[in-house]
Design goal:
The structure is a single chain. This protein is mainly alpha-helical. It has a domain of 67 residues: Winged helix-like DNA-binding domain superfamily/Winged helix DNA-binding domain (Arc Repressor Mutant, subunit A). 52% of the residues lie in helices and 3% in strands. The chain contains twelve helices and three strands, in the order ααβααββαααααααα. A three-stranded antiparallel sheet has the order 1-3-2. Strand 2 and strand 3 form a beta hairpin. Helix 2 packs across helix 4. The longest helix is centred in the N-terminal third of the chain and has 20 residues. The chain starts with a helix and ends in a 7-residue tail after the last helix.
Length: 260
C-alpha cells in the first residue's frame, strides 16, 4: 500500500470513528421520566418497606414482565434519578428514594432527583436565569452537551416531562426555576404536636371553616396533593399504590382504640 492510499484509508477510518462516536451519547440521561422512577420507588416502599427485592418481585408489584425491555428501561431510569440502588437483579430504595415516597419530603426529593441526571444538571446550569430555547435549538444544545443525534428527540421529550414532574416548570415551560422547598434537605420536618383544641374550636377542626385543609396533618396534605383531578386518567395500579401509602400513613398518625 503506497503512502497516498494509506492516507486515504486512515482518513476514512477517522471519519467512521467520528461517526460512531456521534451515534453514542456521552452524557447520562434516562429514557423514561421521573414519574416512572417514582412508581417503582412506591412499589418497593409499599411491599418491602426499607428492604430489598428481586426482579421478579418488583416486576409483579408494578404489573410488568421481569424480562420486558420496558421494565429494564424503567429500572435504569430509577437508578439514573438516584431513587433505586442495588446490583443487576436486586433493588432497594436509596436515601433519596425513601424521601421521594414520603409526602412530607417528596417535593424537595423530586427536585434533587431531577438534578441527579447529568444531562438535566447541565441543562439547568446552562439555562438558569434565562429562557429555554425553542425545540430545535434545545435539541442542538443537547447534542452539544453529549446527546447523540439519533436520541435528541427522546432525550428532550423525557427531559420536559421530568422537569414538569419535578416542579421546575412552575413559572412557565420556557424556563427552569428551582422549586421552593422547606430547606431541610431529605430530613423530615418534625412538628411539635398541637394542643387539644377547646370545645369552641371543634367546629374549625372538623371542617366547619374554610381553612384550605390547614388543620390536616402534613402527611395527609401531601397525600391529597398526589390525587389527580376528577376526570383525569388514573390507572388501577397507581390507585392501589396511593391507597397502600394512605394506609401506611394512617397507621402512623392515628390511634387505634380497638388495639387496647
Amino acid at each position: 500500500m503506497d503512502g497516498e492510499t494509506a492516507t486515504v484509508v486512515d482518513a476514512g477510518a477517522t471519519k467512521e470513528k467520528e461517526r460512531a462516536t456521534r451515534q453514542r451519547s456521552t452524557i447520562g440521561f434516562p429514557y423514561m421520566d421521573l414519574q416512572s422512577a417514582i412508581e417503582l420507588a412506591n412499589a418497593i416502599h409499599s411491599n418491602a418497606g426499607l428492604g430489598d427485592c428481586d426482579d421478579d418481585q418488583l416486576a409483579a408489584w408494578s404489573n410488568q414482565s421481569p424480562k420486558s425491555s420496558t421494565f429494564r428501561v424503567q429500572i435504569y431510569a430509577a437508578r439514573t434519578f438516584g431513587v433505586l440502588d442495588g446490583d443487576a437483579a436486586h433493588h432497594k430504595l436509596t436515601e433519596l428514594g425513601r424521601a421521594i415516597v414520603d409526602p412530607h419530603q417528596a417535593r424537595e426529593a423530586r427536585a434533587r432527583a431531577f438534578l441527579n441526571v447529568p444531562l438535566y444538571k447541565a441543562a439547568f446550569e446552562k439555562y438558569k436565569g434565562g429562557v429555554i430555547p425553542p425545540t430545535a435549538a434545545l435539541e442542538r444544545d443537547f447534542i452539544s452537551l453529549g446527546v447523540s443525534e439519533k436520541q435528541k428527540v427522546r432525550a428532550r421529550q423525557v427531559f420536559e416531562r421530568s422537569a414538569e414532574q419535578a416542579g421546575f416548570f412552575e413559572h412557565g415551560k420556557n424556563r427552569l426555576v428551582m422549586p421552593a422547598t422547606n430547606g431541610h434537605g431529605t430530613k423530615p420536618v418534625i412538628e411539635a404536636p398541637s394542643p387539644e383544641p377547646a370545645k369552641s374550636d371543634q367546629k374549625s377542626k372538623n371542617g366547619g371553616s374554610d381553612d384550605g385543609g390547614s388543620n390536616l396533618h402534613p402527611f395527609i396534605q401531601g397525600l391529597l396533593k398526589e390525587l389527580p383531578l376528577a376526570g383525569d386518567e388514573w390507572p388501577e395500579a397507581k390507585r392501589k399504590l396511593w391507597l397502600d401509602t394512605a394506609a401506611s400513613i394512617f397507621k402512623i398518625i392515628y390511634k387505634d382504640d380497638s388495639a387496647n
